[in-house]
Amino acid sequence: MVEPIKGLKWKYGGEKTTDSFIAIDVDTKYQEIMGFGGGFTEAAALQFHKLRKDKQEEVLTLYFDKNKG
Known about the structure:
This protein is mostly helical. Helix content is 30%, strand content 0%. It has a domain at 38-69. It is elongated and about 60 Å long.
């Protein structure tokens, strides 16, 4: 499991004082995230197939439509 790293301290602002240093500039934007993806597994497809046609259309719209999803 993930365990805390002993001796590691989080500090806002500040100068580089060690060899290991991570700076996060919240004002710099490199790219836009459109989503995190997903997948239709066989199990999901079986459940999707059981939906009424209007609900299937709603799922597909919410899942894939650039403006409504």
